[in-house]
Amino acid sequence: MQDAPFAVRLAASPLLTALYLDAAAADGYRRDQNVFGPGVTIEDDMAVLVRYTSGVTLTHHLTEYSP
């Protein structure tokens, strides 16, 4: 991961370590990985549209490959 141009070094910050790396023990999600690395199979784009019974609509779009 040393050559990853968009890497955020979570272990370099006590706050980011507490928020993200320490959470891996609770949820099993491995953070601080190179999303461009070989063998990584993540969804690049995800979108959700929610319509509540009150009539309110929520949209959310996530782009994983964008820095």
Order of helices and strands: HHEE
Give the number of domains.
1
- As residue ranges, the low-confidence spans are none
Report the principal-axis shape. extended
Total helices: the number is: 2
What is Rg? 16 Å
| Gap from first CA to last CA | 15 Å
User: How helical, in percent, are the residues?
Assistant: 10-25%
Structural class: alpha+beta
Instruction: Provide the spatial order of strands within the biggest beta sheet.
Output: 1-2
Share in β-strands:
15-25%
Average pLDDT over all residues? 81
Instruction: Summarize the main sheet.
Output: 2 strands, antiparallel
* Count of DSSP strands: 2
Descriptive tags:
67 residues; alpha+beta; two-stranded antiparallel sheet; 2 strands; 18% helix; extended
Provide structural commentary.
- By secondary structure, the protein is α+β, with helices and mostly antiparallel strands.
- A two-stranded antiparallel sheet has the order 1-2.
- It has one domain.
- The longest helix has 8 residues.
- The protein has 2 helices and 2 strands.
- The model has no long low-confidence stretch (mean pLDDT 81).
- The relative contact order is 0.17.
Topology:
Layout: H1 14-21, H2 24-27, E1 45-51, E2 57-63
Antiparallel strand pairs: 1-2
Concise description?
The protein is an alpha+beta fold and 67 residues long. The chain contains two helices and two strands, in the order ααββ.
